[in-house]
Specification:
four-stranded parallel β-sheet; 323 residues; 10 strands; Rossmann fold; alpha/beta; single chain; 47% helix
């Protein structure tokens, strides 16, 4: 069986288990919240799953293919690799859970894993030093920013970019392990359908929001905000009175606004703005890797994205009640 190690934890996935997992997750997500708005998303995922279920054989090459060892430093990439690869992939997120991936320096065991990788997937731009500055031994590598043609290292927070990432990751896996390509391609189609469903969730929910302003401690959500017609502003860690007053004025003029903190980033600036504006401070997860204290049991990229969406919906006053 293939396996995934994320933040020091390993789990196994059966061959083609990703298709079943996507179907179950889509059903539970629709039942849990936004049921009326997301009904179309369920239909898309179900249709995709039924199409994949019609495959009777992936051919002897898949059975004979070796397990591809993939190393990365970002949880969304690791989850995508695991879902695409099924039992034919072993993925290692070398950043331990709770450590800041933007500053973490790999130890000997992590460096050994990187050197032994059949495929190294880095974000690029030095974003995650553990993988961005560590070339794979003799195996191929993929740099996401180059593959996607973007400068946004938080590309997974924008479902449209994440969908492109799924295609790029599957292509790199095909090149690193051609015999398993039929499996990778089939599962990537199902995963892409699920990401498209997530994109639809964000579009439907955020389009119903009277508030359009996001204020955060960095630019992590800026691309996502632009994609969905929102306006993102960044407050410095130690804002002066003029910056605080300008942002508070923007909040009062915009209607409902989302002022939020993030894991590993100092929240002094956003706390100051929220306090003066008399607005609740929310928390958004950048989903790079598990933060200190970890995530709830069973957390996935999709569940965490939906959690962020729910936070934004509440903060921005979105109207997503069932009709």
């Amino acid at each position: 069986m293939g396996s995934a190690r994320v933040g020091g934890r390993a789990f196994a996935r059966p061959l083609l288990g990703s298709v079943e997992t996507l179907a179950r997750r889509s059903v539970s997500r629709v039942a849990r919240s936004w049921r009326a708005a997301l009904a179309g998303a369920l239909a898309v995922s179900t249709a995709s799953t039924l199409l994949c279920s019609c495959t009777t054989s992936l051919g002897p090459s898949v059975t004979a293919a070796p397990v591809l060892k993939v190393v990365t430093g970002a949880y969304p990439i690791a989850e995508a690799v695991s879902l695409i690869g099924g039992s034919k992939v072993s993925v290692d997120d070398v950043v331990p859970a709770g450590d800041d991936p933007l500053t973490y320096k790999p130890g000997p065991s992590q460096r050994d894993a990187i050197e032994a990788a059949g495929l190294l997937i880095a974000v690029g731009g030095g974003f995650i030093p553990a993988t961005d500055t560590s070339p794979a031994g003799q195996g191929p590598s993929l740099t996401m920013l180059s593959a996607l043609g973007t400068s946004d290292p938080y590309f997974w927070l924008d479902p449209a970019l994440m969908n492109k990432a799924v295609t790029a990751i599957a292509k790199a896996m095909d090149g690193a392990d051609p015999r398993a390509a039929p499996l990778f391609n089939e599962n990537s189609v199902s995963l892409s359908a699920e990401v498209s469903s997530l994109d639809g969730d964000f579009t439907r929910v955020l389009s119903a929001c009277p508030g359009k302003l996001l204020i955060g401690p960095d630019q992590a959500f800026s691309s996502m905000a632009t994609e969905f017609g929102l306006k993102a502003k960044v407050v410095s860690p130690d804002p002066d009175q003029a910056q605080i007053e300008a942002l508070v004025s923007a909040v009062h003029q915009s209607g409902p606004a989302a002022i939020y903190s993030e894991p590993w980033v100092t929240d002094a600036g956003v706390v100051a703005v929220a306090t003066v504006a008399h607005v609740r401070l929310h928390s958004l997860d950048t989903i790079v890797d598990p933060p200190p204290g970890g995530w709830p049991a069973g957390a996935t990229y999709f569940a965490l994205m939906e959690q962020d969406l729910g936070t934004l919906s509440s903060a921005l006053g979105c109207n997503n009640n069932e009709q």
